[in-house]
Amino acid sequence: MSTELNELFERNRQWAADTETREPGFFSRLLKQQTPQYLWIGCADSRVPANELVDLLPGELFVHRNIANVIVPSDLNALSVIQYAVDALRVTHVIVVGHSNCGGVKAALNNLRVGLVDIWLRHVQDVRNQHRAFLDRLTPERQVDALVELNVLEQARNVCRTTIVEDAWQRGQEVVIHGWVYGLHNGLLEDLRITVSKPQDIEPAYERALAALKQRFVPAETAETAAD
Fold first, then answer.
1. Catalytic residue among 11, 13, 29, 47, which?
2. pTM of the full predicted structure?
3. Domain span at 219
4. Of residues 219 and 30, more confidently modeled
Protein backbone atom coordinates (compact mmCIF):
# COMPACT_ATOMS: atom_id res chain seq x y z
CA MET A 1 0.00 0.00 0.00
CA SER A 2 1.42 3.38 -1.04
CA THR A 3 1.73 6.36 1.29
CA GLU A 4 -0.55 8.33 -1.09
CA LEU A 5 -3.20 5.58 -1.10
CA ASN A 6 -3.20 5.50 -4.88
CA GLU A 7 -4.86 2.10 -4.83
CA LEU A 8 -7.95 3.60 -3.22
CA PHE A 9 -8.18 6.33 -5.85
CA GLU A 10 -7.92 3.64 -8.51
CA ARG A 11 -10.68 1.64 -6.86
CA ASN A 12 -12.79 4.79 -6.73
CA ARG A 13 -12.28 5.48 -10.44
CA GLN A 14 -13.21 1.91 -11.26
CA TRP A 15 -16.30 2.04 -9.05
CA ALA A 16 -17.46 5.33 -10.63
CA ALA A 17 -16.93 3.95 -14.14
CA ASP A 18 -18.73 0.69 -13.34
CA THR A 19 -21.62 2.56 -11.73
CA GLU A 20 -22.05 4.89 -14.70
CA THR A 21 -21.88 1.95 -17.11
CA ARG A 22 -24.48 0.03 -15.14
CA GLU A 23 -26.74 3.05 -14.63
CA PRO A 24 -26.07 5.81 -17.17
CA GLY A 25 -26.72 9.24 -15.68
CA PHE A 26 -26.54 7.97 -12.09
CA PHE A 27 -24.29 10.74 -10.77
CA SER A 28 -26.09 13.57 -12.58
CA ARG A 29 -29.37 12.36 -11.07
CA LEU A 30 -27.76 12.11 -7.64
CA LEU A 31 -26.79 15.79 -7.84
CA LYS A 32 -30.37 16.93 -8.17
CA GLN A 33 -31.89 15.66 -4.97
CA GLN A 34 -31.44 13.76 -1.73
CA THR A 35 -34.76 12.27 -0.67
CA PRO A 36 -34.08 9.32 1.63
CA GLN A 37 -36.96 7.82 3.57
CA TYR A 38 -34.70 6.24 6.17
CA LEU A 39 -32.22 7.41 8.79
CA TRP A 40 -29.86 4.63 9.89
CA ILE A 41 -28.19 5.12 13.28
CA GLY A 42 -25.58 2.41 13.56
CA CYS A 43 -22.23 1.40 14.96
CA ALA A 44 -19.03 2.70 13.38
CA ASP A 45 -17.77 -0.88 12.99
CA SER A 46 -16.28 -1.30 9.49
CA ARG A 47 -18.02 -4.67 9.09
CA VAL A 48 -21.46 -3.07 9.06
CA PRO A 49 -21.85 -1.07 5.80
CA ALA A 50 -25.36 0.38 6.07
CA ASN A 51 -26.28 0.87 2.40
CA GLU A 52 -25.02 -2.55 1.37
CA LEU A 53 -26.89 -4.41 4.10
CA VAL A 54 -30.24 -3.18 2.85
CA ASP A 55 -29.22 -2.95 -0.82
CA LEU A 56 -29.92 0.77 -1.15
CA LEU A 57 -28.11 3.22 -3.40
CA PRO A 58 -26.41 6.44 -2.28
CA GLY A 59 -29.11 9.02 -1.63
CA GLU A 60 -31.62 6.45 -0.43
CA LEU A 61 -30.34 6.07 3.14
CA PHE A 62 -29.20 8.86 5.48
CA VAL A 63 -26.60 7.47 7.88
CA HIS A 64 -25.14 8.35 11.26
CA ARG A 65 -22.63 6.05 12.95
CA ASN A 66 -20.74 6.11 16.23
CA ILE A 67 -19.20 3.64 18.66
CA ALA A 68 -21.96 1.27 19.86
CA ASN A 69 -24.81 3.25 18.20
CA VAL A 70 -25.44 5.49 21.20
CA ILE A 71 -27.90 8.41 21.29
CA VAL A 72 -27.66 10.73 24.30
CA PRO A 73 -28.91 14.29 24.90
CA SER A 74 -25.36 15.67 25.16
CA ASP A 75 -24.30 14.50 21.69
CA LEU A 76 -24.97 17.47 19.43
CA ASN A 77 -23.52 15.60 16.45
CA ALA A 78 -26.12 12.82 16.59
CA LEU A 79 -28.94 15.20 17.48
CA SER A 80 -28.03 17.46 14.56
CA VAL A 81 -28.21 14.48 12.21
CA ILE A 82 -31.61 13.47 13.58
CA GLN A 83 -32.89 17.04 13.35
CA TYR A 84 -31.74 17.46 9.75
CA ALA A 85 -33.12 14.06 8.77
CA VAL A 86 -36.52 14.65 10.37
CA ASP A 87 -37.03 18.37 9.75
CA ALA A 88 -35.22 18.96 6.46
CA LEU A 89 -35.16 15.60 4.68
CA ARG A 90 -38.50 14.52 6.16
CA VAL A 91 -37.43 10.91 6.63
CA THR A 92 -40.23 8.59 7.66
CA HIS A 93 -38.21 5.90 9.45
CA VAL A 94 -35.40 6.23 12.01
CA ILE A 95 -33.68 2.89 12.55
CA VAL A 96 -31.26 2.22 15.42
CA VAL A 97 -29.08 -0.75 14.46
CA GLY A 98 -26.69 -2.67 16.70
CA HIS A 99 -24.67 -5.70 15.68
CA SER A 100 -23.62 -8.98 17.23
CA ASN A 101 -20.25 -9.28 18.96
CA CYS A 102 -19.88 -5.49 19.13
CA GLY A 103 -16.45 -4.51 20.41
CA GLY A 104 -17.73 -1.38 22.11
CA VAL A 105 -20.47 -3.28 23.92
CA LYS A 106 -17.99 -5.99 24.89
CA ALA A 107 -15.65 -3.36 26.36
CA ALA A 108 -18.51 -1.77 28.30
CA LEU A 109 -19.71 -5.12 29.60
CA ASN A 110 -16.31 -6.21 30.86
CA ASN A 111 -14.92 -2.84 31.99
CA LEU A 112 -12.13 -3.00 29.42
CA ARG A 113 -9.98 0.14 29.22
CA VAL A 114 -9.37 1.19 25.63
CA GLY A 115 -8.77 4.94 25.91
CA LEU A 116 -10.89 8.05 25.45
CA VAL A 117 -13.79 5.93 24.21
CA ASP A 118 -14.13 4.59 27.78
CA ILE A 119 -15.99 7.82 28.64
CA TRP A 120 -18.37 7.36 25.72
CA LEU A 121 -19.01 3.75 26.65
CA ARG A 122 -20.24 4.78 30.09
CA HIS A 123 -23.59 5.18 28.36
CA VAL A 124 -23.57 1.49 27.45
CA GLN A 125 -22.44 0.64 30.97
CA ASP A 126 -25.51 2.47 32.24
CA VAL A 127 -27.59 0.05 30.15
CA ARG A 128 -25.58 -2.87 31.54
CA ASN A 129 -26.12 -1.71 35.11
CA GLN A 130 -29.83 -1.20 34.55
CA HIS A 131 -30.18 -4.80 33.37
CA ARG A 132 -27.42 -6.39 35.47
CA ALA A 133 -29.66 -8.96 37.19
CA PHE A 134 -30.86 -10.29 33.83
CA LEU A 135 -27.39 -10.34 32.26
CA ASP A 136 -25.95 -12.25 35.23
CA ARG A 137 -28.31 -15.14 34.42
CA LEU A 138 -26.60 -15.65 31.04
CA THR A 139 -23.35 -17.30 30.04
CA PRO A 140 -20.48 -14.88 29.29
CA GLU A 141 -20.80 -15.61 25.57
CA ARG A 142 -24.49 -14.72 25.56
CA GLN A 143 -24.09 -11.62 27.69
CA VAL A 144 -22.42 -9.61 24.91
CA ASP A 145 -25.16 -10.14 22.34
CA ALA A 146 -27.86 -9.66 24.96
CA LEU A 147 -26.35 -6.31 25.92
CA VAL A 148 -26.11 -5.41 22.23
CA GLU A 149 -29.87 -5.85 21.94
CA LEU A 150 -30.63 -4.17 25.26
CA ASN A 151 -28.55 -1.21 24.11
CA VAL A 152 -30.55 -0.99 20.87
CA LEU A 153 -33.82 -0.88 22.82
CA GLU A 154 -32.52 1.83 25.14
CA GLN A 155 -31.09 3.95 22.33
CA ALA A 156 -34.26 3.62 20.24
CA ARG A 157 -36.21 4.82 23.25
CA ASN A 158 -33.75 7.71 23.61
CA VAL A 159 -34.47 8.71 20.01
CA CYS A 160 -38.18 8.69 20.74
CA ARG A 161 -37.62 11.01 23.68
CA THR A 162 -35.68 13.67 21.77
CA THR A 163 -37.45 16.98 21.39
CA ILE A 164 -36.88 16.61 17.64
CA VAL A 165 -39.06 13.52 17.37
CA GLU A 166 -41.53 14.75 19.99
CA ASP A 167 -42.03 18.01 18.05
CA ALA A 168 -42.47 16.12 14.77
CA TRP A 169 -45.17 13.95 16.31
CA GLN A 170 -46.81 17.02 17.85
CA ARG A 171 -47.19 18.65 14.46
CA GLY A 172 -48.56 15.44 12.94
CA GLN A 173 -45.49 14.41 10.96
CA GLU A 174 -45.10 10.69 10.37
CA VAL A 175 -41.89 9.46 12.00
CA VAL A 176 -41.48 5.81 12.99
CA ILE A 177 -38.64 4.67 15.26
CA HIS A 178 -37.28 1.12 14.95
CA GLY A 179 -34.67 -1.04 16.70
CA TRP A 180 -32.78 -3.70 14.75
CA VAL A 181 -29.74 -5.90 15.20
CA TYR A 182 -27.37 -7.19 12.53
CA GLY A 183 -25.76 -10.62 12.75
CA LEU A 184 -22.09 -10.58 11.75
CA HIS A 185 -22.21 -14.38 11.59
CA ASN A 186 -24.99 -14.61 8.99
CA GLY A 187 -25.40 -11.18 7.40
CA LEU A 188 -29.04 -10.90 8.44
CA LEU A 189 -30.94 -8.07 10.10
CA GLU A 190 -33.44 -8.84 12.86
CA ASP A 191 -36.28 -6.59 13.95
CA LEU A 192 -36.30 -6.28 17.74
CA ARG A 193 -39.95 -5.18 17.57
CA ILE A 194 -39.57 -1.82 19.22
CA THR A 195 -41.55 0.14 16.63
CA VAL A 196 -42.91 3.49 17.77
CA SER A 197 -44.93 6.05 15.81
CA LYS A 198 -46.48 8.16 18.59
CA PRO A 199 -45.59 9.21 22.15
CA GLN A 200 -48.07 6.98 23.95
CA ASP A 201 -46.57 3.89 22.30
CA ILE A 202 -43.01 4.42 23.58
CA GLU A 203 -43.22 2.56 26.88
CA PRO A 204 -45.61 -0.23 25.75
CA ALA A 205 -43.39 -0.96 22.72
CA TYR A 206 -40.27 -0.90 24.88
CA GLU A 207 -41.75 -3.24 27.48
CA ARG A 208 -42.96 -5.72 24.84
CA ALA A 209 -39.59 -5.73 23.09
CA LEU A 210 -37.76 -6.14 26.39
CA ALA A 211 -39.95 -9.07 27.44
CA ALA A 212 -39.42 -10.77 24.07
CA LEU A 213 -35.67 -10.23 24.33
CA LYS A 214 -35.49 -11.81 27.76
CA GLN A 215 -37.54 -14.77 26.61
CA ARG A 216 -35.09 -15.38 23.75
CA PHE A 217 -31.98 -15.20 25.88
CA VAL A 218 -32.96 -16.94 29.11
CA PRO A 219 -32.21 -20.68 28.83
CA ALA A 220 -35.26 -22.94 28.75
CA GLU A 221 -34.32 -24.70 31.96
CA THR A 222 -34.04 -21.35 33.76
CA ALA A 223 -37.47 -20.30 32.53
CA GLU A 224 -38.93 -23.61 33.69
CA THR A 225 -37.32 -23.19 37.10
CA ALA A 226 -38.74 -19.69 37.39
CA ALA A 227 -42.19 -21.00 36.53
CA ASP A 228 -42.12 -23.70 39.24
1. 47
2. 0.90
3. 35-227
4. 30
